[in-house]
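Worked problem 6 (solution included).
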Amino acid sequence: MNTAKLVGILLIAAGVIGLVYGSFSYTKETEAVKLGPLELTVKEKETVNVPVWAGIGAIVVGAALLVMGGKKG
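Solution. The predicted structure is:
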């Protein structure tokens, strides 16, 4: 399996996951106050929405790589 086909499969998988879930969350830790040896940190939960067009685009590009990736020359 060559690199183009592998990237195509990964793009299709990422596109499907993006369409199914629609968004993902992560926790960001920031330093709020530092006063001598005392440090206060704040954990913020961030949510990132994945646009539908990005999921569909990833699937289309991945499919194109699968079809074109097998052709030589």
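Discussion: The two ends are 16 Å apart (CA to CA).
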